[in-house]
Design goal:
single chain, eight-stranded parallel beta barrel, 243 residues
Length: 243
């Protein structure tokens, strides 16, 4: 952070307070376009075996994943307006409702990045709120993906505050498909922007135990990763996935 020009650092976490049980923080993720049904089945079995918080899959796989995880504590998350955030708000809301009907209980939506950068905050908040409303209908969680690699620090703060105003449950760093991924700086900045109670999800390039611990110490309450097994096993690296 200092190398980036910070003169002061507000830090909400403490490395000594990071829990040893990292599995409950992890959304075990498989979002590539080439993912097969067999890979979804394996993802779900791994999530069961390691007691991850959730699996995160593309909408087409939600029903399959929900069936595989029925009777477990592992939740199914899916993505909306992914990965560009450029869908109409009404389409995002419908996409969320369909995923929820198929068994998702967490929705990771991409906000309207272009509107944010244009300063149209009313549109951005309304866009988020429509998906939040879809989630509230069934008691599901809504996470808002900011795609921090495309934003200035001021835009990251504004986006975080808009997500909070729209009553989302989490803000999330990245899709894993855009420029850049999660950084400790961004997680700490987002935590500062939303306060202590709202969730913060670090996603994009989190591959090791050390990565995950640093993100949690900075304020993350959930980790999106395709390298979940490597993270909980204390191994460096992972399966090479970026998500």
């Amino acid at each position: 952070m200092v190398e980036e020009g910070a003169a002061r650092v507000a830090y909400n976490g403490n490395g000594a307070d990071v829990p040893s049980d990292l599995a409950r923080f992890i959304d075990h993720t498989k979002l590539g376009p080439e993912v097969t049904p067999e890979e979804i089945d394996r993802l779900c079995q791994e999530a069961r075996d390691f007691s991850f918080a959730a699996v995160c899959v593309n909408p087409v796989w939600v029903k399959r994943a929900a069936g595989k995880l029925r009777g477990t504590n592992v939740r199914v998350a899916s993505v909306v307006g992914f990965p560009l955030g450029a869908n109409a708000s009404e389409i995002k809301a419908l996409e969320a409702r369909r995923a929820l009907r198929d068994g998702a209980r967490e929705i990771d939506m991409v906000l309207n990045i272009g509107a944010l950068k244009a300063g149209d905050y009313q549109l951005v908040e309304r866009d988020i709120a429509k998906v939040v409303d879809s989630c509230r209908e069934v008691g599901a969680i809504c996470k808002v993906i900011l795609e921090t690699g495309l934003l200035t620090d001021e835009e990251k703060v504004a986006a975080s505050q808009l997500a909070k105003a729209a009553k989302a449950d989490y803000v999330k760093t990245s899709t894993g498909f855009g420029h850049g991924g999660a950084t400790v700086f961004d997680v700490a900045l987002m935590r500062e922007a939303v306060g202590a109670k709202m969730g913060v999800k670090a996603s994009g390039g989190v591959k090791t135990t050390a990565d995950a611990r640093e993100m949690i110490a900075a304020g993350a309450t959930r980790i999106g990763a395709s390298a979940g097994i490597a993270i909980v096993g204390g191994r460096e690296g992972g399966d090479g996935g970026k998500y």
